[in-house]
Design a protein that fits this description.
76% of the residues lie in helices and 0% in strands. With 162 residues, it is an all-alpha fold.
């Protein structure tokens, strides 16, 4: 009687088992490679999302900064027009005698109208707006220094810098 497994069949069976094991090893390597690629892709995607968030935050900050600059520019313009109006009032009023000089009583009379015409709270808020960075309602040294260096009458005089 012959056994059901002949040497030829055994040889063929072990060859098929080796092929299957090789296929399974290849499959495992492919799964590992795919896992590594997925991890790298997820890391790249996370990095890209972080970059998008940073860009969105930067755009928002730029828009806020532009709004603050526009607000401060309008405050500065309003202050400059107030100064111009007061300078004009000083030059046109109080010269009752028609001369080129103003006597002390005339000066007091003229200055009284100028001072009474002002709203101190409004003027303070306008001036604070020029110094205040980020609407923190504080004056930082950096903003004080920035305004002090500003040209066209906005800077401090030499005696104030000492």
């Amino acid at each position: 009687l012959r056994s059901s497994s002949s040497p030829c069949t055994l040889h063929m069976g072990s060859k098929m088992t080796e092929e299957r094991a090789g296929v399974l090893r290849t499959h495992d390597l492919l799964v590992q490679d795919l896992g590594k690629e997925m991890t790298e892709a997820e890391a790249d995607e996370e990095h890209a999302l972080t970059g998008c968030t940073v860009l969105a935050d930067a755009a928002k900050k730029r828009a806020e900064d532009a709004a603050q600059i526009n607000q401060k520019t309008s405050l500065q313009t309003a202050l400059e027009s107030d100064i111009g109006a007061h300078q004009e009032a000083l030059s046109t009023t109080g010269k009752e005698d028609g001369g080129g000089t103003i006597e002390y009583p005339e000066f007091l009379k003229m200055l009284t109208f100028v001072i009474l015409d002002r709203d101190p709270k409004e003027e303070f808020l306008k001036a604070l707006g020029l110094f205040d960075d980020g609407n923190a309602e504080k004056i930082s040294f950096r903003s004080l220094k920035r305004v002090a260096k500003k040209p066209a009458g906005g800077g401090l005089t030499r005696s104030c810098r000492r």
